[in-house]
Amino acid sequence: MPVPIDYAALVRPQVAKLKPYTPGTTVSQAKAKYGLEHFVKLSSNENPLGTSPRALAALQSLGELQIYVDDDHHELRERLAAPHGLQAANVLVGHGSNDVVRTLFTALLVPGDEVVVADPTFSLFPKDAMLFDATAVKVPLRDGVHDLDAMLAAVTPKTKLVVVVDPNNPTATAVDRGAFERFARALPERVVLMIDQAYREYMPAGSVEGAAYAASRPATIVLRTMSKIYGFASLRFGYALGDAALLAYVERVRVPFGVSRPAAVAALAALDDDDFLRRSVANNEAGKALLYPAFERLGLHAYTTAANFVALEVRGTATEAYETLLARGIVTRSGDALGMPGRLRITIGTPEENALLLDALRSLAPAAA
């Protein structure tokens, strides 16, 4: 028999230390575990109204898939840039915003760099920092919100990047616009400011508009995605806004043809689907108006959301609450796996889905029901 190979010694040390990303429970997994026929999936912050109809219509007309996509995506990048007074050169596209982050980190980070992030926040930022042998400097949230003063104080001569996820994932909280403006002004010019705004379309008036900083502060990169409000979670399309001179270097490490033709065609069509965006935001606002008073009646606290999900405090452990809801046909995300013990991350659904959620939550708070 061949001698077993020690692959842990073969791969890069950073890879050997990494824990793989663990997505939430799928509906098929939930059905297999509990044998229920119907489940409500509120675990991954998807749009409960589905995908932009204009995007779906555009996909129906696709042909010649054997032809490579035009990898420049000039028209699409122009459309993404124009609302913010930017040019196509200010846009970097990718196979979802996770791909864009990996590309940016590949171009920017060297061993010994520091990346300042909130704790908890989206897990791929500290994981990708570790992959490139950089150090993720984790700054605890304050009352569920980025502590911008503490993040600024954490900046050292080794700091290459500061990442602000707004709204934050998993807490759904937004930073104060005035506080963020002061923070951005105080940040050293040599430090790259990365603003992840995956849920920007759901944010209330008066929130931080990251694109404005991409236009005014050179070393600023703003991440956006069409996976959330546009319903592209399976199709995958994300992009970054930033200084053209910086993105020109990042382009050198971008994987060629990383954005498929279906994704590019659907994205371009979806940008004209204002009706779908309005309906999606209206559904989300109606959900918040229903859920928050109900949470209060049940004695369950949720941070104020600026996104399409909530971080709900539960009695007992988050995993116990997650399992209780799962057994009742509601798929959520346990905060124990997200650095948010004692809370569930729950997507705001349709009126029918939200009603089923509240009915199931009563089993977690029987005394308050």
Features:
EC 2.6.1.9, 15% strand, histidinol-phosphate transaminase activity, histidine biosynthesis, Aspartate Aminotransferase, domain 2, aminotransferase, 369 residues, Aspartate Aminotransferase, domain 1, 15 helices, HistidinolP_aminotransfase
Structure description:
The chain is of the alpha/beta class and 369 residues long. It has two domains: 10-50 and 275-361, Aspartate Aminotransferase, domain 1 (Alpha-Beta Complex), CATH 3.90.1150.10; 53-270, Aspartate Aminotransferase, domain 2. The chain is 38% helix and 15% strand. The protein has 15 helices and twelve strands. The protein has helices at 7-10, 13-17, 27-34, 53-60, 74-81, 97-108, 124-131, 148-153, 177-186, 210-216, 244-250, 261-270, 274-298, 318-327, 351-361, and strands at residues 40-41, 91-94, 114-119, 135-140, 159-165, 192-196, 220-225, 238-242, 309-313, 330-331, 333-334, 343-347. It has a seven-stranded mixed sheet with strand order 2-8-7-6-5-3-4, with helices on both faces. The model has no long low-confidence stretch (mean pLDDT 95).
Estimated share of beta-strand residues: 5-15%
| Low-confidence region ranges | none
| Architecture (CATH level 2) name of the largest domain | 3-Layer(aba) Sandwich
Shape: globular
The CATH H-level homologous superfamily of the largest domain:
Type I PLP-dependent aspartate aminotransferase-like (Major domain)
Determine the N-to-C terminus distance. Answer: 64 Å
**Mean pLDDT, rounded to whole units?**
95
